[in-house]
């Protein structure tokens, strides 16, 4: 992903564009084959929007998204259909991705039929096999979505995503709507199928503990920008950006002997319609300096591929 921007126009009643919500503003990152890249941040930071533009469920305003040297953002509908076989999405609310009036087996089969994959008989077998892989009995093929619990539906959502044998799965808050006890089951299943199907994940979530558990690398978003990115351990043990430090300091720790100072941030996240000049975090940053108000800090690489966008590290 290179220099991705997604601006949503705000129009006057007469249809003239008044201003823009800058949901994603110049985001660049690389997703390596086989890894899980966690995109984390508070709600409204642009992480879901980033995930959705990759599949062009939302049209990007600017930027490139290269898959094997081909820019998804420049593809026509036919090329895009092929890409959608290779990149699939798992949503926060799996129910919305399932047709309530259809038996789930039928819903899963339909994606195969749309892409003209094999015969009816083979399709049914494929679906049964996949349902079995995500922990269902074959008889559940004939059930309707409302007959399943939230966690079960998310497993069906995952099966739906896997049916076309994708390489990449974009998981948008896949466990945030589930009870904590069910979350770990779904996370474990995600990890199992990743191994078995050799998947690459873009894992979008606001829960730092979940992201830490599943990700190899993590990008932290704030107001439409990636402000820090690192290998998971480096990011959680040694966060550099003041915003990341504050986020991590707010996560409860299990070990009471381990002391950690809670960094409380002042104020609310500013509006993405009128984001702050310079560093977008400057209105809330405990370390703000004069230049932060005017100069946009670039996301620069420090040690170990650790990237940070903050003037505190300008000379390092
Ligand atoms: Fe804080 Fe300045 Fe760093 Fe922004 S650039 S995070 S305002 S110190
Ligand atoms: Mg979201």
UniProtKB/TrEMBL annotation:
Listed A to Z, the keywords are: ATP-binding, Nucleotide-binding, Transport
Provide the ABC transporter domain boundaries.
1-248
The record's GO molecular-function terms, alphabetically, read: ATP binding
| SUPFAM superfamilies the UniProt entry points to | P-loop containing nucleoside triphosphate hydrolases
| PROSITE patterns xrefs | ABC_TRANSPORTER_1, ABC_TRANSPORTER_2
Tell me if Transmembrane is a UniProt keyword of this record. no
Record's keyword annotation contains Endoplasmic reticulum:
no
> Which InterPro entries does the annotation name?
AAA+_ATPase, ABC_transp_ATP-bind, ABC_transporter-like_ATP-bd, ABC_transporter-like_CS, Oligopep_ABC_C, P-loop_NTPase
| The family this protein is said to belong to | Belongs to the ABC transporter superfamily.
Q: What NCBIfam families does this protein's entry cite?
A: oligo_HPY (TIGR01727), PRK11308.1 (NF008453)
Q: Any idea what this protein is called? A: Peptide/nickel transport system ATP-binding protein/oligopeptide transport system ATP-binding protein
Organism field: Caldalkalibacillus horti
Which lineage do the record's taxonomy fields give for this organism? Bacteria, Bacillati, Bacillota, Bacilli, Bacillales
